[in-house]
Each structure stands twice: as structure tokens, then as C-alpha cells.
Amino acid sequence: MPGIPQVISIPDIGNLQHIWVITIIIGFCLIGLGLILRHKKINKRKASNILLIIGIAIILCQGGQLLNSYF
């Protein structure tokens, strides 16, 4: 590949899939934490919304990459 310098090593697809699965699990944890904060009603509404949005964004992005790696 002429565009990528030789000093940058790109992991193989198996390692990338493991990283994507781990980040999807982190996304689910963020969603769970956001739902717990929302349920407690302790003026943490903004924080819970931010956690929910970040968790959903992580799951969608990493899930899309994971699906594209299989097809």
C-alpha cells in the first residue's frame, strides 16, 4: 500500500474484531449506567443523557464495523 508508511502496523482482522466487541460491551455498560442514573432521579438527567447518547453511538459505530468485517 503506497499511502500507508511502513512504520505504522495495522493489526489483523481477528485482533480488530476483538477490539470492536470489547468497545460494544463498553457501550452497553455506558447505556446501563445512564439508565441507572436516570432511574434514581438525582438531578443527573444531563449526565444520564450524555451517557446514553455516547453508549448508543459506540454501539452503532463499532457494530457497523464489526458487521462489515464479516461481509
Q: Explain this structure to me?
A:
By secondary structure, this protein is an all-alpha fold. The chain is 76% helix and 0% strand. The protein is built from 2 helices and no strands. It has helices at residues 13-40, 45-70. Helix 1 (13-40) runs antiparallel to helix 2 (45-70). The longest helix has 28 residues, at 13-40.
Number of helices: 2
Give the low-confidence spans.
Answer: none
Structural class: mainly alpha
Q: Radius of gyration from the CA trace?
A: 17 Å
Query: What percentage of the residues does DSSP assign to strands (E)?
Result: under 5%
Based on DSSP secondary structure assignment, what is the total number of beta strands? 0
Mean pLDDT: 85
Q: How would you sum up the global shape?
A: elongated
Q: SSE order in H/E notation?
A: HH
The CA-CA distance between the termini, in Å, is 22 Å
Biggest sheet statistics: none
Helix content: over 70%
Notable traits:
elongated, 71 residues, 2 helices, mainly alpha
Fold topology:
Elements: H1 13-40, H2 45-70
Tell me briefly what this model is.
76% of the residues lie in helices and 0% in strands. With 71 residues, the chain is mainly alpha-helical.
